[in-house]
């Protein structure tokens, strides 16, 4: 069994900063390049999601600084640390939604693991932050899955 440490919490936070940094760019890509009969719906939804991503990046980075860590802050770091993949640029509207559902599922799993790590070191503040993000993602994932039918 691996025991969480303050350093491992900083690693969790940087992975999430990287994930959200990549999602911020990916969601902009989808917002700009979505086409088809669902354009108006998805254009607005992707904007909503990238605005939320920006808030998560800032909140996670400021928490990282608060606990003495150094937040990932370059695209190079985001690409190295993220569990997610960049957009190819050729996705259909449906593939865009499917990609976001997949990304949110990956992040949800990582958030759950991060919450457990936080609980091991009695870091309730970070745990609560991660849980709030998880709760939001679970709702977004459900809505996007419902959108696809």
Automatic annotation (TrEMBL):
Q: Which Pfam families match?
A: Ferritin
Query: Care to name a GO molecular-function term for this sequence?
Result: ferric iron binding
Taxonomy, superkingdom: Bacteria
The record's listing under InterPro entries reads:
DPS_DNA-bd (IPR002177), DPS_DNA-bd_CS (IPR023188), Ferritin-like (IPR012347), Ferritin-like_SF (IPR009078), Ferritin_DPS_dom (IPR008331)
Domain Ferritin/DPS span(s) in chain numbering: 13-148
Protein family per UniProt: Belongs to the Dps family.
How is this protein named in the record? DNA starvation/stationary phase protection protein
């Amino acid at each position: 069994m691996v025991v969480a440490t303050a350093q491992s919490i900083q690693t969790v936070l940087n992975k999430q900063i990287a994930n959200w940094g990549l999602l911020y760019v990916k969601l902009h890509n989808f917002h700009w390049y979505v086409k088809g009969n669902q354009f108006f719906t998805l254009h607005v939804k992707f904007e909503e999601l990238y605005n939320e991503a920006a808030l998560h990046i800032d909140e996670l980075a400021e928490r990282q600084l608060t606990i003495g860590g150094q937040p990932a802050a370059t695209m190079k770091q985001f690409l190295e640390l993220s569990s997610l993949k960049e957009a190819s640029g050729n996705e259909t509207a449906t593939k865009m939604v499917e990609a976001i559902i997949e990304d949110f599922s990956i992040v949800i799993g990582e958030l759950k693991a991060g919450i457990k790590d936080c609980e091991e070191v009695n870091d309730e503040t970070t745990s609560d932050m991660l849980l709030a993000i998880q709760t939001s993602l679970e709702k977004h994932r459900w809505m996007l899955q419902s959108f696809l039918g």
